[in-house]
Amino acid sequence: ESDTASEISFQFNRHKKTPSTGSHSSDMASVSSVSGSVLSVYSGDFGSVDAQGTVEFALDYDEKNREFQVHVSQCKDLAVVDEKKGRSDPYVKTYLLPDKARMGKRKTSVKKRTVNPIYNEVLRYKIEKMVLLIQKLNLSVWHNDPLGRNSFLGEIEIDLASWDWSNRKLNWYPLKARSLSAVNGVDHRGVMSLSIKYVPPGSLGKWPKNPPSGEVHIWVKDVKDLLQLRPSGVDSFVKCYVLPDTSKKSYQKTRVIKRDTNPVFNHTIVYDGFHTEDLKDACVELTVWDHEKLTNHFLGGIRLGLGTGLSYGISVDWMDSTQEEVAFWQEMMLAANEWIEGLLPLRSL
After folding, report:
1. What is the pTM of this model?
2. Check: CATH 2.60.40.150 for 190-346?
């Protein structure tokens, strides 16, 4: 049923379900390295002010240099963050969505003590026009806080596929409250087809067919509608971890499928060392990546678990499964030794 199969052990210290404060940081150090893999568009303090005012900017694409240019001119009537001093220290930040991790952010200088800042700066992205046209531009204005708690002042989001590229003039746009779709990561990243199965200890009769401990089988079938980051397509592969174990023993990956936004992997992974009670505290993380020579780019992922926010009594941010992912995992837990088929949307993690 699959052209590749791999089997590895799920291992960590189960007896440390309620570790002391002293052991917490060392036990969980490797967990944080996975959960922080993708930066958020929104980082900072949102509750202090309401969005108001306008921003003046222009968009252009330099065909010769293959460069997208955002000319940020100025802002007017921004919200006041520090009411006692009657001041804001604003700057403008841009992202290309949905793949904010790949293209990165650009930002202007900070203008101090003004709600009418003048920038006259150009933010540049080296990107092919074909790729640019499947992106959205997120332009947001922020108050810069020396202590790092930057305040959101407003944003505008533009679908570049429908942008009038003959319009190179500076225009004014009203700043809006932050987009719920971007905050929640609701963007189309593709859909993964997979099956999972749990084999409890001692459920298959006598050895050698009977596993001495439980097994979780993950069959990654295919992915549809991946983001196309280059004109030639995307060279994708899938990574798999069983959290909280982020060691090399837990890490598995499929082969790379080249130049295909609908790759078929047909890859099965088996994790042994599972006891039934572990299913409440573990999480299978599957992430899809675009492979390039120098670095790999995150495309989307899913997390299969109960989504309780806790793992062995410890609060963790990767226990954040969606309702669909939780239902899929619960169905596996209730149907031992049966393949459970699913079609799950990829998301930001």
Report:
1. 0.54
2. yes
Residues in the chain: 349
Contact 49, 83 (CB under 8 A): no
The full DSSP string for 172-193 is EEE-BPPPHHHHTT-----EEE
Give me the sign of the Cα torsion angle 328, 329, 331, 335. Answer: positive
What homologous superfamily does CATH list for 48-182?
Answer: C2 domain (2.60.40.150)
Where residue 205 falls (left for φ over 0; alpha for ψ -120 to 50; beta otherwise) is left
253-298: per-residue pLDDT in tens?
A: 999 999 888 999 999 999 988 888 999 999 999 999 998 877 788 8
pLDDT digits (tens, 9 = 90+) for 12-61: 444 333 333 333 322 322 222 222 223 334 444 444 588 899 999 999 99
Burial annotation 98-132 (CB, 10 A radius, 16+ → b, else e)? bbbebbebbbbeebeeebebebebebebebeeebb
Strands (E), 127-165: 136-143, 151-159
